[in-house]
Amino acid sequence: QLQLVESGGGLVQPGGSLRLSCAASGFTLxxxxxxxxxxxxxxxxEGVSCISSRGGIIKYTDSVKGRFTxxxxxxxxxxxxQMNSLKPEDTAIYYCAAVRSVQPWCVMSEPRYDxxxxxxxxxxxx
Length: 126
Hints:
Layout: E1 3-7, E2 10-12, E3 18-25, E4 34-39, E5 46-51, E6 58-60, E7 68-73, E8 78-83, E9 92-98, E10 115-116, E11 120-124
Parallel strand pairs: 2-11
Antiparallel strand pairs: 1-3, 3-8, 4-5, 4-9, 5-6, 7-8, 9-10, 9-11
């Protein structure tokens, strides 16, 4: 059974850092682009970052550029989102998502992804 599990969320002060992890089970990530999405209270879910299956293509939404870094370790079946200089507006539930593709691409568009984790809460507050 294909499953994604996020971890690493928590409460952090503004300016702090967190590293989110997305663990895949039931399949290998080698042919799966991965996207990170977030949903803040009262808002729609939005794309944060994405990475192609081998890591050659990486994208970020403008609000996190220079602060967040996405990476992956296919040997460990893991994808990461390093979040630095966190702001209160980064508070949200963060989700990772996967879709199978033999082509090197990634997009921050929800409908393109078939598999989703349950999410991990990130709260940035003093």
